[in-house]
Amino acid sequence: MRETDQLEIDQAGGTLHLSGALTVRTVTAACKAFADLPSDLRKIDLAEIDRLDTAGAWALIGLQDRMDALEITGARNEAESLMQTVRQAMPDPESRPETRASLVQLVEALGRRVISGVGFFLQLAGYLGIFLSRLARMIRHPSEFKLTSLVHHCEEVGFKAVPIVALMSFLIGVVLAFQGSVQLQQFGAEVFVVDLIAISILRELGILLTSIIVAGRTASAFTAAIGSMKMREEIDAMRTLGLDPAMNLFVPRILALLLMLPILGLIANIAGLFGGALMAWLDLGISPAMFRTRLVEGTSVWHVFVGLIKAPFFAMIIGVVGCHAGMQVQSNAESLGRQTSNAVVTAIFAVIVADAVFSIFFARVGI
Amino acid sequence: MSEDAVIKVRDVRNQFGSHVVHENLDLDVYRGEILGVVGGSGTGKSVLLRTITGLQRPREGSVEVLGTDVLNADEDTRQALEKRWGVMFQDGALFSSLTVRENVEVPMRAVEGLDPDIRAQLADLKISMVGLEYSAGDKYPSELSGGMRKRAGLARALALDPDIVFLDEPTAGLDPIGASAFDELIQELSHSLGLTVFLVTHDLDTLHATCDRIAVLAERKVLVAGTMKDMLAVEHPWVHEYFHGPRARAAAPELQQNGAER
Questions:
Q1: What pLDDT sits at residue A95?
Q2: How far apart are CA B95 and CA B222, in angstroms?
Q3: Per the domain annotation, does A112 fall within a domain?
Q4: Is A50 helix (H, G, I), strand (E, B) or coil?
Q5: Chain B residues near residue A330 by CB distance under 8 angstroms
Q6: Is A312 found in the same domain as A211?
Q7: Residues A150 and A24 grouped into a single domain
Q8: Are B187 and B34 in contact (CB under 8 A)?
């Protein structure tokens, strides 16, 4: 029925006879036909039209507006009232805002991005400041400290992350030992695989990869939790009840990360060394005792410190980025999703940048 | 108004777990009328709307819309039927990744051979018909207020000139001015486009201003259906409380007096 709408257009003298259905299905054809009508057209006869919808009425009125002194006759009552409604509602595209020149727009867009990037860093610095000031306040007023909350977050970000962090680090140790042995065997220097594993895991990989996993796990969790509270106005409710969101939401979370990330880093170091030792034993025949001796003798304990000293900084970055993104969520679900993925990307990126800065710093001071 | 039922609901039973929402529910909606469905919270007004539009499958009973058996129709028949009705959900349910204009164009994309340029202009027409400004077409749903989202949702529901529109709480969350403007809009469009309107509401003003007939959901079925005057004469305690409560008196004092005289 509807699928087979037919429109016939018949022009005789100054009159256009339309018959059939003038609907959304036939309007494209009708508009094409209307485009090349002679300008001396005086009348449109709708008597034979069985069905007219808003699309059809729109086409007729568009035609009438284009030609002066065009009369539409034979419309039935419903068609008449439909045309009346459509005529009143005809959109006025004149009010469309003008688009500016593209080059100016590009420069403007670039400028906006730079400004918003700078603003983003300032905001992050602001959140770091808020966290530190609340931490100081907490030391002066220990009664405001939420121990239960801190323990809960320690469990969430620390304890529950142990399996994934340990497994990942173990596998990285295995991979390093395997890859290193293939290369070092060529020089008959298999035993140096111990130094390779120890230095790369203790100095860099253990804590960096742990931080990346935690950034993915925890920054997103912080953003989602704080963001959904922001979305449902719970943060505003807290403020009106005299509860400080920073004290109640940020401090326990970031503090938990600060406490847990070094521990996770240490676990990652141990698991990585264990994986490396296992692979060295199986693949190169370096016995665990030999591995241990070589490790203790050949690797300075400084490598462990250099690795773990970075942990609190990374923890701060991940926590601040996660909390900040959570507070940027607006009252719709899309912004929650967008901010959550933003938080993960920003946190991982910032952790890697910070790691690079640390590497350069340690190389310069010669540790 | 002809006595030509476009929606026929018979013996419908809806059940969630052991909780029976509808039982032996019958309802007729006639061509060209505006039917308001009212009922207390949890009486299954929205469930009824979802049942009729095929989003919720009832345990028993039959639903017939425009002569098509909704529950047993094959895929093609159902798709053809879906083009003949439009649904406006409570918060508009606009696709958040599309602009308002693109949202309105979505149903029109199913029309074969419709020129994209004409389609965009028709979308602009629908946007203007529901009382939105031209510039609203370029905006994303998240940039609109609640009332504008509802209007945009209505524009999408009207995109293909449907025979029936279903409106779920069209005035909920609107300020009184916005709500009465929406009432007028529904009435105007219903008359000029010959729409049949099935509307679920809590709003007594909407019932007074727009509805030709009212169906009251209570005790798991359509308890009564009739005009506002009929409603005032009903003795059932909930219906009486609803139509004679202080808010009802505020909404239509003159009718209440007539009702009291009768």
A1: 56
A2: 33
A3: no
A4: strand
A5: 142
A6: yes
A7: no
A8: yes
Contact B20, B31 (CB under 8 A): no
Q: For every one of its 367 residues, what pLDDT tens digit does chain A have, with 9 covering 90 and above? A: 445 677 887 777 778 888 888 888 888 888 888 887 777 777 888 888 888 888 888 888 888 887 777 788 877 877 888 888 888 878 776 655 566 678 888 999 999 999 999 999 999 999 999 999 999 998 898 888 888 999 999 999 999 999 999 999 999 999 999 998 888 888 888 888 898 899 999 999 999 999 999 999 999 999 999 999 999 999 999 999 988 889 889 999 999 999 999 999 999 999 999 999 999 999 888 899 999 999 888 888 889 999 999 999 999 999 999 999 999 998 888 889 999 999 999 999 999 999 999 999 998 988 7
User: DSSP E strands: which ranges in chain B?
Assistant: 5-16, 19-30, 34-39, 60-65, 68-69, 85-88, 164-168, 196-200, 213-218, 221-226
B96, B128, B191 ranked by CB distance to A90: nearest: B128
Write out the two tokens for A216.
Answer: 């993915």
- Does residue A109 fall inside a structural domain? no
B5-84+163-261 under CATH 3.40.50.300, yes or no: yes
pTM score: 0.70
Contacts of A335 in chain B (CB under 8 A): 142
- Cα atoms in the 13 Å half-sphere on the side-chain side of A280: 32
CATH number of the domain where residue A16 is located: 3.30.750.24
Cα A291 from Cα A308, distance rounded (Å): 22
**B100 neighbors A63 (Cβ within 8 angstroms):** no
Mutation target to probe the B interface, by most B beta carbons within 10 A, among A22, A50, A54, A85 is A54
Asked if the model's pLDDT at residue B258 lies above 70, the reply is no
Residues in chain A within 8 Å Cβ distance of B113: 25, 28-29
Question: Do the domain assignments include residue A58?
Answer: yes
For residue B112, the distance in angstroms to the closest alpha carbon of chain A comes to 7
Which candidate from B135, B191, B194 shows the least CB-CB separation from A95?
A: B135
| Closest C-alpha to A169, from A234, A214, A136, A225 | A214
Domain ranges of chain B: 5-84+163-261, 98-161
Residue ranges in chain A assigned as alpha helix (H): 27-35, 54-66, 77-89, 102-140, 147-157, 162-185, 193-199, 206-214, 220-231, 234-240, 245, 251-284, 288-298, 302-308, 310-327, 333-365
- Considering the domain architecture, whether residues A297 and A164 belong to the same structural domain is answered as yes
Range of the domain at A14: 2-95
Distance (Å, whole) CA A202 – CA A367: 13
> ipTM score here?
0.78
Buried b (16+ CB within 10 A) or exposed e, A86-120: beebbbeeeeeeeeeeeeeeeeeeeeeeeeeeeee
Report yes or no: A127 and A324 within 8 Å, Cβ to Cβ.
Answer: yes
Would you give the DSSP letter of residue A204? I
Cβ count near B106 (within 10 Å) = 14
Q: What one-character DSSP code corresponds to residue B162? A: -
- Cα separation of B171 and B208, whole Å? 13
Q: Which residues of B touch A25 (CB under 8 A)?
A: 111-114
When divided into structural domains, chain A yields a total of 2
Shortest Cα distance, chain A CAs vs residue B127, angstroms: 8
- For residue A334, being part of any structural domain is answered with yes
Q: Which residues of A touch B121 (CB under 8 A)?
A: 58, 91
Nearest CB partner across the interface for A24, out of B108, B134, B188: B108
- Lookup result for tokens 């890697």: A352
Q: How far apart are the C-alpha atoms of A198 and A195, rounded to whole Å?
A: 5
